[in-house]
Amino acid sequence: MPRCVPFQADPEMIINWTPLADIVETHDRFLITTHVRPDGDALGSEVGMAGLLRQKGKDVRVVNASPTPPRYDFLDPDRTFFEHYGHPIQASDLDDREVAIILDLSAWGQLGEMAEFIRGFRGVRVVIDHHVSQDDMGATFFKDSTAEATGTLVQSAVAALGGSLTKDVATGLLTAIAMDTGWFRHPSTRPSTMRGVADLMEAGADVAGIYRKLFEQNTQGRLRLMGRTLSGLKTDLGGRVAWANISQDDLRETGAIPPDSEDLIDFTVSLRGVEVGLLLIEQARGGVKVSFRSRNGLDCSRLASTLGGGGHKAAAGATVGGTMAEVEARALAAVRQALDSATVPSQT
């Protein structure tokens, strides 16, 4: 049987959680939110943080600007945990919230339709994040850009605040950490990562079951989109750069939905010899989302910053105004310039 496991903090974690403990002690009504197009780290971290706060007897609402991608429905089986801002939740419905905890982002632009509400929020703002880029969000920041996932930070907070790893909390946090480490294959995976995962498994997180729900229940739309995206893969600079585009027509004609594009960027850097991969996705409201991945040490966060975005050294992105052709030209020019001036070893 799964156990309710007290978690010991990672000794490598540098965050002082005392200010968060004070905030939790002195407030009762909490709002948790994350970035648009939420991924496994964002959603799993929300599950973990909400579980910790509810253990402390707090009133918690989890409200996001974007709907939950279907592949993560197992985190909210009765469809009551994640709420969608604007559909039907309105700003007035959240007037009683005293604290807003913002997870897995440090930039206003990533809040989507919730940005205006959070800017005007009269309560306490808290940011828990592991990304390099950061805006002045008028918040108390708990940040470690060396952490492999925001879920890792939430797991540390659970320990620091005297919480327990219930099965639900452990499932959310394992999802967060596994997805942001590429299922433990990215260089960010460390021995401490696996020690933390062991604690989550002891608390009831089912690694095999979570993997099946995430990767072995594809829809026909996702598989068709995957095939079309891969068939359109292009390369440049003698195979050092690979990229693919996804248009709104591609989504409609394959029967896919935008969240079906998650992880497709990884295929661009799976091609032998590729050092930098890009995936460009046309947005329904205009503009193009550009994702970068590198496998040679090139700093993707710097690449993304040239387009107004940010992220991590090995993975970053930006949403850019313009047509697909225009944004593609800008993104590829930035990559070519970075590779021309970089002193990083070539991939073999």
Molecular structure report:
The protein has 348 residues and is α/β, with parallel strands linked by helices. The protein has two domains: 5-215, inorganic pyrophosphatase (n-terminal core), CATH 3.90.1640.10; 220-341, Diaminopimelate Epimerase, Chain A, domain 1. The chain has twelve helices and 14 strands. It has a six-stranded parallel sheet with strand order 4-3-2-5-6-7. A six-stranded mixed sheet has the order 9-10-11-12-14-13, with helices on both faces. Helix 3 (115-119) links the parallel strand 5 and strand 6. The radius of gyration is 20 Å and the shape is globular. The model is unreliable at 5-9 and 344-348 (pLDDT under 50). Keywords: Hydrolase. InterPro entries: DDH_dom, DHH_sf, DHHA1_dom, Oligoribo/pAp-PDE_c-di-AMP_PDE. Residues 269-339 form the DHHA1 domain.
In a nutshell, what does this entry contain?
The protein has 12 helices and 14 strands. It has 348 residues and is an alpha/beta fold.
H/E order of the elements? EHEHEEEHEEHEHHHHEEHHEEHEEH
Q: How many domains in all?
A: 2
Distance between the termini: 46 Å
The CATH superfamily title of the largest domain? inorganic pyrophosphatase (n-terminal core)
The averaged pLDDT comes out at 92
Number of strands: 14
Which percent bin holds the helix content? 25-40%
Largest sheet, described in full?
6 strands, parallel
CATH class wording of the largest domain: Alpha Beta
Whole-number radius of gyration?
20 Å
- Any low-confidence stretches, pLDDT <50, length ≥5? 5-9, 344-348
**Number of helix segments?**
12
Strand order of the largest sheet: 4-3-2-5-6-7
CATH architecture descriptor of the largest domain: Alpha-Beta Complex
* CATH topology tier name of the largest domain: inorganic pyrophosphatase (n-terminal core)
Shape: globular
Beta strand %: 15-25%
User: Which structural category do the helix and sheet elements fall into?
Assistant: alpha/beta
